[in-house]
Amino acid sequence: MDYPNDQAPGAPVRSGIPEHGRIPKYYAVKAHISVLIEELGEGGLLPTERDLAVRYEVSRETVRQALRELLLEGRLRRQGRGTVVAGPKLEQPLSLASYTEGVRRQGRTPGRSLISLDRFPCSDALAAETGVERGEPVWHMERVLLADDERVGLESTYVSVARVPRLDSDFDPDSSFYAYLHERLGIAFGDADERIETVLATPREALLIGTPPALPMLLIHRVSRDTAGRPLERVRTLFRGDRFSFSAHLLGNGG
């Protein structure tokens, strides 16, 4: 198999073109628009669908399909009635570092908007993951995640009221929950289990995050424990698939 001399290691092999060389028309248009995106740079305004159709001698529906994929991939974004080149995705480390730390490392300003903070008796299913006895009170905190005031995710946190009794009065919901636990309560995170999957947002979630319901989301389930191994929190976090990527540093076992 022949590889282009400028083939980037992270790019699709042979730019995703099958060996027989036949590609869908929309994909060829997508490749042309990708070059245009690089030329325009972040924030650059893309020509209209009609202008692109004329330029590449295809139908507007073909252009529309190419644009849909580029929007889903996060390379473009809607702005008013136009379409502009999006900035790079936020890279979140798969670690016990908080969302706040991950966003700040990339020169962005993290923030959160509180949707709700409620307490209710712990259910059987939640008790199994939080170490709280059935019927004991737990907090549920739901917040929209922000990066430079852009809505990028939705986070639901469940934690025992006994461990964090004054969450409703002492905690600033716009700040880091991890920092609050460590600095105010002396609780440090020891380890966590995480599971990642792709999902579509529910209508409610899409409305809160400000995305179309058809936009793919990255869903992270996390169960965290303190340094003594006691269950601490159960978190469900949705991240916009077009604005986030995740990274991890892996170590070998010496074998």
Q: Could you estimate the helical fraction of the residues in percent?
A: 25-40%
* Largest β sheet strand count, sense and barrel closure: 6 strands, antiparallel
Strand fraction equals 25-35%
- Strands in their spatial order, largest beta sheet: 4-5-6-9-8-7
Number of helices, where a helix is a run of at least 4 consecutive DSSP H or I residues: 8
Shape: elongated
Number of strands: 10
One letter per element, helices H and strands E, the order comes to: HHHEEEHEHEEHHEHEEE
Low-confidence regions: 1-5
| Cα-based radius of gyration, to the nearest Å | 22 Å
Short description:
The protein has 255 residues and is of the alpha+beta class. The protein is 27% helix and 33% strand.
Keywords:
255 residues, alpha+beta, 6-stranded antiparallel β-sheet, two-stranded antiparallel ribbon, 10 strands, elongated, disordered N terminus
